[in-house]
Task: structure prediction
Amino acid sequence: QVQLQESGPGLVKPSQTLSLTCTVSGGSITTNYYHWSWIRQPPGKGLEWMGAIAYDGNTYYSPSLKSHTSVSRDTSKNQFSLQLSSVTPEDTAVYYCARGRPLGGYDYWGQGTQVTVSS
Result:
């Protein structure tokens, strides 16, 4: 059973960088051909895919967020991370990490972590 757990600060000030880490257990983030995504849900809105890192280390980003989003990984710790720079209150959301299946969809999700951007 694969488990994902998000971690990081719950409060970030405007203009700062939001950093979150997803720790994966029960499966390797280098297993062919899965990808590992960050997805968020602002209050009262739908899910928004932000970016992903694939089993081979390639990264993919939402065009609308690409300029200030970075996804990386630490294979020795079986973790992947999100950095979102220059945050604004509009980046307030519940942030999820999830495992993407090779043929589409997501089969495992973290429980989500609330991040609030406020001074």
Q: What stands out?
A: The first strand starts at residue 3 and ends at 7. The chain has a mean pLDDT of 97. Residues 10 and 115 are 4 Å apart (CA to CA). The two ends are 39 Å apart (CA to CA).
